[in-house]
Specification:
Strand order of the largest sheet: 3-2-4-1-5
Radius of gyration: 20 Å
Low-confidence stretches: none
Helix content: 25-40%
Number of strands: 10
Structural class: alpha/beta
Number of helices: 8
Shape: elongated
Number of domains: 2
Order of helices and strands: EHEHEHEHEHEHEHEEHE
CATH class of the largest domain: Alpha Beta
CATH superfamily of the largest domain: Tetrapyrrole methylase, N-terminal domain
CATH architecture of the largest domain: 3-Layer(aba) Sandwich
Length: 243
C-alpha cells in the first residue's frame, strides 16, 4: 500500500541534521515524487537532505509538483496519481510542518477519502514551539492564522478573541506577513487590556531566535522607549492570553 508522507522542513536557514530526525531524512531521500508549495525551495531542501542521506535517484529525475493557494481544486486529484500508480509521495511545506497553515491540508483530506495511508513525520512547528515557550495556557489554545488587514476589522477581531480568551482561559495564536509584524503587534497592544499577556516569538530554532512574554502594558512601555522586538521581515508567531 502506498503512503503520503507529510515531511517537515526547517524554519529557516540551518543545518537539517540539527533539526530533523535521521528517519525523516532517510524517508525523504527514498522518495521519487513530491508535492511542494514551491518547487525551487523543495529542490534546495532535497539538496540539503542529500548531504547526510544520499537521494535514491538524481535530483533532476525527482518529480516535484506544486500545490499552493493558487492551485485550482479541480487539479488536486491529479496530484495523487503517483500514489495510485504505486509510488509513495512526500508533501513539503515552505517551512515547518505540512498541512498546518499550509495548502497541503486539502490534499491530505483527499488522500483519506481515497483510503490512502497518510503518515506525518516529526519536525518543527513554529506554532507549537511558540506556545511551548510562551508560558501561556497550553491546555486550551486556538490558532487563527492571519488576522484581517483592514484596521477596523482587525481591531474588532482582536477584541472578540480577547473576550474569548478571558472567558475560556484560552491562548490565542496568530501569524503575519513578516513586513507587517510591527503593525500587528501595535494593533494587539491598542486593543487588548493592559494586563493581557502577549508573547512575540521570532526566528524559532534559528541562531537569531527571540521569545518574550509580558503584559500588553509592559510592551507599550518598551515600545515608547524604542525597544521594539527585532522582528522586521522575520517569521514571527504572536500569542496572547487574557487573565
Amino acid at each position: 500500500m502506498t503512503t503520503l508522507y507529510l515531511i517537515p522542513t526547517s524554519l529557516g536557514p540551518t543545518e537539517l541534521v540539527s533539526i530533523l530526525p535521521a528517519e525523516v531524512c532517510a524517508v525523504t531521500a527514498s522518495l521519487h515524487h513530491f508535492v511542494a508549495e514551491n518547487a525551487k525551495t523543495a529542490r534546495a531542501f532535497l539538496k540539503q537532505v542529500n548531504v547526510s542521506h544520499p537521494l535514491s535517484i538524481a535530483l533532476q529525475e525527482i518529480q516535484i509538483t506544486e500545490l499552493n493557494i493558487n492551485t485550482p481544486a479541480a487539479e488536486l486529484s491529479a496530484l495523487l496519481d503517483p500514489l495510485r500508480a504505486g509510488f509513495n509521495v512526500g508533501v513539503l511545506s515552505e517551512a515547518g510542518v505540512p498541512a498546518v497553515a499550509d495548502p497541503g491540508a486539502s490534499l491530505v483530506r483527499l488522500a483519506h477519502a481515497e483510503g490512502i495511508t497518510v503518515k506525518p513525520l516529526v519536525g518543527p512547528s513554529s506554532i507549537l514551539l511558540a506556545l511551548m515557550a510562551s508560558g501561556l495556557n497550553g491546555q486550551s489554545f486556538a490558532f487563527h492564522g492571519y488576522l484581517p488587514t483592514d484596521a477596523s476589522m482587525r481591531s474588532k477581531r482582536i477584541k472578540l478573541l480577547e473576550q474569548r480568551s478571558q472567558q475560556e482561559n484560552q491562548t490565542q495564536i496568530f501569524i503575519e506577513t513578516p513586513y507587517r509584524n510591527q503593525a500587528l503587534l501595535e494593533a494587539m497592544l491598542s486593543n487588548c487590556n493592559g494586563q493581557t499577556l502577549v508573547c512575540v516569538a521570532t526566528d524559532l530554532t534559528l541562531a537569531s531566535e527571540s521569545i518574550k512574554t509580558q503584559t500588553a502594558d509592559a510592551w507599550k512601555r518598551d515600545i515608547a522607549k524604542g525597544r521594539l522586538p527585532d522582528f522586521h521581515k522575520k517569521p514571527t508567531v504572536f500569542l496572547f492570553l487574557a487573565e
